[in-house]
Amino acid sequence: RDAADRPFAAELTRIADADARVSLHWFDSRPQRDGAARPGRIDIAELKRILPFDDYDFYLCGPSAFMRDLYDGLRALNVPDERIRFEAFGPSSIARHASRAARAPAASIPVVFRRSARDTEWTPADGTLLEFAEGQRVAVPSECRAGSCGTCATRVLSGAVEYVQAPDAPVEPGCALLCVARPAEGAAVPLVLDR
Fold first, then answer.
1. Beta carbons within 8 Å of 48's beta carbon, 6+ residues apart
2. How many CB atoms lie within 10 A of CB 7?
3. Which residue has the higher pLDDT, 88 or 149?
4. Is the model's pLDDT at 177 over the cut of 90?
5. What's the chain's average pLDDT?
6. What is the dihedral of CA 176, 180, 185, 191, to 10 degrees?
7. 188 burial level (CB within 10 Å; 0-12, 13-18, 19+)
8. What is the pLDDT of residue 139?
9. Is 93 part of a structural domain of the chain?
10. 106 has which bridge partners?
11. Alpha-carbon distance 161 to 153, whole Å?
12. 140 partner at 20 to 30 Å CA-CA among 13, 55, 76, 88?
């Protein structure tokens, strides 16, 4: 509502003052005359104005209508459902719209592990590319097996992958997290991995 109602305001201000990567944007439904806050609630238009959209996680906390509006707006901007989290106090009426999981390809797909000199065929029964690599005795470092740590990141030399679930760890362009990836359906060229 106003500056007195901002949770952790002093702590957040200290963090922002100490770290140039953090910026604070206050929105108050009843702003004071000091001009430090914009009037009203943050909405998608304001998010687009102040935040360069990139690979982010979003954490929403507030009244149900506020969270529902932001959630629907983020989904309309193609932010994956699994990258949007909520904290609700009391009943929440947010209807989630899960991202569609990648469909399993119907046929086998050629996969080449370049450094290991393995030329193979992947099928849906082989699971993720990490499971497939292990079955082919191709060494791939891994830890989480859930797309969270990035340890299994592998350069894709040609072809394409799709994700069974969206990875939480950042993925460099031209790379894939094999623990949550499989060959993309309908690829015109074999999938060649730098392993």
1. 77
2. 7
3. 149
4. yes
5. 82
6. 40
7. exposed
8. 92
9. no
10. none
11. 12
12. 55
CB 105, CB 124: distance < 8 Å: yes
SS (H, E, C) 32-52: CCCCCEEECCCCHHHHHHHCC
Please determine, for residue 169, whether its predicted confidence score (pLDDT) is greater than 80: yes
Number of neighbours of residue 73 by Cβ within 10 angstroms? 15
Amino acid at 28: D
* Identity of the residue numbered 152: C
Of 87, 119, 150, the last residue of a domain is: 87
Alpha-carbon span 181 to 130, nearest angstrom: 8
Average pLDDT over residues 40-67: 79
Can you tell me the mean pLDDT for 162-181?
89
Token pair for 96 = 């989630």
Residue 100 belongs to some domain of the structure: no
Residues 57 and 114 in one domain: no
pTM of the model: 0.49
Say which residue the tokens 């690979």 belong to.
55
In a domain, 11, yes or no: yes
Final residue of a structural domain among 31, 52, 87: 87
